[in-house]
Write a structure and sequence with these properties.
- It is found in: Cell membrane.
- The chain is mainly alpha-helical and 391 residues long.
- The protein has 21 helices and no strands.
- It has helices at residues 2-27, 43-55, 65-76, 93-99, 104-126, 132-138, 140-148, 152-165, 170-178, 184-187, 189-197, 200-221, 223-242, 244-247, 253-258, 263-286, 291-305, 315-329, 335-343, 347-354, 359-390.
- Helix 8 (152-165) runs antiparallel to helix 9, helix 11 (189-197) runs antiparallel to helix 12 and helix 11 crosses helix 16 (263-286).
- The longest helix is centred in the last third of the chain and has 32 residues, at 359-390.
- It starts with a helix and ends with a helix.
Amino acid sequence: MWPALRLAAWAVCCLYAGTVAAAWQANGHPWFLSSTGTFVPLDFSALYVAGLMALAGEAATAYRPDAFEAALAAFLDTTSHVGLRWLNPPILLLVLAPMATLPYVPALSVWLAATGAMFAMAMRLALPRSGAMALGFAAPPTISNVLNGQNGYVSAGLFGIGLALIDRRPMLGGALLGLLTYKPHLSAAIPVVFVLAGRRDSLMGFTIGAAATAALSAAILGFDSWGAFIQSVGGTADRFLGASDERARMLTVYAALSTSGYPSLAIALHVAVAAAGILAAACLWRIDAPLAFQAPALIAACYLVTPYAFGHDAAILVVAAAFLSRAALSGHLRTPEVVLIIAAPILPGVGLFVGPTLLGPFAAILLLVLAFRGAMARRQETYAAAGKAKA
């Protein structure tokens, strides 16, 4: 089964590359350029312009929607409304500012290469089998990340590398997970799970990683950058959780139900699913289940907690599936469950084309249930073997 999957993954990667190359040849320009030679407003455009503003000593100004919109429009040489804003904490600007010293196209290339390498390392650590990286890069959420120049590879990379180190080096692994506070909504569940599971070393590492990067960004970019970010949080929440056009692109429980006309049910069900995800993940971490079950449970819980997540954010579920595949290859899961693991990262990709659906959270729930079920089955087998040994 594995050789066939590996071959299929490489075929899909080649298909993606061929499609992009064919479109480039047919249009006479790459996807990030318009027919007139100006830059297309990708998500990476916002990252690049934020880096430019940080270089100019205007990190705090980047959080003002009118100022950022004006700077972005000037860079893109357009009078049209772009609709992109700078939302991330100043932590990410520590990376974007040096990258913005490069021209736009080299910066985009370096960004995709460096973050893609992080993702590849995470996949290799999560599932040390040849072809695992091909499977990861063939998943729809990772392709969305490339085409938009987004930060999904960063999130997936930090999750994968941090969790791979968490057993041997809990402080270091926790510190790497602490860097995920560059997207606070995506990392909010991590310290909660560590507290409930009694993982003090990992929690301390997470706290140190988050605090150190926050302090460093404040020292370099100015404390006013953090003040501006905090003031912008309310506007960001209103934009993503209140505006229907933004919710239409999200893949969460809240987005799917609220856009369907059930706002009260959306909030209640989202909170219930998030709480269940946190408790299930904490249970696996508290009983010291194998990492192949703990890691996907924590990643899935993080995805379920955030009320707004987009297609590129689902790249973390690809790493979760890789960790769980390790358990499958060890014989702890059956063939039908292996099929579900492979299908899970594909579901959010379908959601990218049909709008706000429950496919994203369903994929996370599926991985969480498979991890929990596999861990409990293994635990029962261990107890049964211990009982026979005593007898």
